[in-house]
């Protein structure tokens, strides 16, 4: 299991198993909630390298032109500066 991406604690509660309903890719994802800060996230989290398996070639993101760093610090900076 992994630490929370926001606060770094390893203290989560299982919420549910989810599947990709948009593109119907294979896999079941374990969704948890951090008991320390409340962030809801996948645990285990897909690796950065495996993310291409979940997005078909025709997918593109127009909602976030300024990409964030795929690191915990990049994520923390994004959510704390909202």
Description:
It is a single chain. The chain is of the alpha+beta class and 82 residues long. The longest helix is centred in the last third of the chain and has 9 residues, at 72-80. A hairpin with a 5-residue loop joins strand 2 and strand 3 (40-42). It has a three-stranded antiparallel sheet with strand order 1-2-3, with no helix packed on it. The chain is built from one helix and three strands; from the N terminus they run E-E-E-H.
The strand line-up of the biggest sheet is 1-2-3
State the share of residues found in helices, binned by percent: 10-25%
Largest sheet: 3 strands, antiparallel
Radius of gyration: 14 Å
Write down the overall mean pLDDT: 79
Q: Hey, roughly how much beta strand do the residues contain?
A: 15-25%
Q: Could you tell me how far the N terminus lies from the C terminus, measured between alpha carbons in angstroms?
A: 28 Å
Question: What is the count of β-strands?
Answer: 3
Please trace the helix and strand order, writing H or E for each element: EEEH
- SS-based structural class? alpha+beta
Number of helices: 1
Uncertain regions: pLDDT < 50 for 5+ in a row? none
